[in-house]
Amino acid sequence: MSTDASSSDxxxxxxxxxxxxxxxxxxKGVRFPVTAGGDDGTGFVVRYQGIVYGYxxxxxxxxxxxxxxxxxxxxxxxxxxxxxxxxxIYVPDSGxxxxxxxxxxxxxxxxxxxxxxxxxxxxxxxxxxARA
Length: 132
Ligand code: FES
What we know:
Blueprint: E1 4-5, E2 14-19, E3 30-36, E4 39-48, E5 51-56, E6 81-82, E7 89-90, E8 97-99, E9 109-115, E10 118-122, E11 127-129
Antiparallel strand pairs: 1-2, 2-10, 3-4, 3-11, 4-5, 5-9, 6-7, 7-8, 9-10
This protein binds FE2/S2 (inorganic) cluster.
FE2/S2 (inorganic) cluster binds near residues 85, 88 and 101.
Protein name: Rieske 2Fe-2S domain-containing protein
GO molecular function, one term: metal ion binding
Keywords: 2Fe-2S, Iron, Iron-sulfur, Metal-binding
C-alpha cells in the first residue's frame, strides 16, 4: 500500500501515509506500518496548530501503542496526545511527556512531509519501512 515518491532530497525516501485532508486539526491520527529497531510497529501522524507531526506509536512508559481506538491520540481537550493505557500525556509538537508515568520521556519523532495535498513519512536509521 505504500508508495515511494520522489523528493527534493535525492537520498531521502518518502512513503505515502494518506491524503492531507484525512488528518484534521486535533482530530483522529492516521497510523502507518513501520519496523522500529527491527520490530514490527506503527507510526502515526496528527495535525496540531495546522502542522502535521509524526511519531512512533510507542509509549515512553511501556513500549506499547498509545491509541485506545484506532487513530484516537488526542485527549479530550485536544491539547495533548495521550496514552490510553496509563494516561501519559505528550506535547503534540515536540513529543515530550507533560505528565503521567512517562515523565522525562519523549515520543520518538518520525520525519513527515506535507506536500501536494498528501502526507509522507521519511525512514531513518531506526524507523524503517515495514516488512513486505
Ligand atoms: S504504557 Fe503508556 S502510560 Fe503506561
